[in-house]
Amino acid sequence: MSGRCIFCKIVDGQIPAKIEYQDDDILVFHDITPQAPLHLLIIPKKHITNLNEIREDNADIITKIFTHIPKLAFQFGINEKGYRIVNNCGRDGGQTVFHLHFHLLGGRNLTWPPG
Ligand code: AMP
Ligand code: ZN
User: Fold this and answer.
1) Do the domain assignments include residue 90?
2) Cis peptide upstream of residue 34 (ω within 30 degrees of 0)
3) Which ligand has the shortest distance to the CA of 35?
4) What is the CATH number of the domain that holds 12?
5) From the CB of 96, is ligand 1 less than 6 Å away?
6) Residue 87 lies in a domain
7) What's the predicted TM-score (pTM) here?
8) CA 40/CA 33 separation, integer angstroms
9) Domain total for the chain?
10) Does the annotation mark 101 as catalytic?
């Protein structure tokens, strides 16, 4: 699957992104259409379509992603004020890029409920 979807292309360096962090398993980059002063996307490097594909044998990536989120929040100074993690799953969930990703939104007061 690598190289086919847009986020796989970002992982492979085929299309540019403002990369904030990466290691062997995850990649963090700035959303191209930010919805808040800070809008990061946190993705597994390995292609996973969405949360529906998470099972016991690949769930470690979720732990990796979620243990990295507070580090990003500290780094960007929003840990105390707060922030929001969003996962859009499937069409009704508003997913437009079918490679698992979590949005980290911060730097402003976010309203609730979402649309
Ligand atoms: P979702 O609607 O949850 O699937 O989110 C997809 C997100 O990817 C949207 O917020 C887009 O703005 C963002 N996006 C799409 N293409 C790119 C890109 N090339 N670089 C960075 N972010 C992107
Ligand atoms: Zn992909």
Assistant:
1) yes
2) no
3) 1
4) 3.30.428.10
5) yes
6) yes
7) 0.97
8) 10
9) 1
10) yes
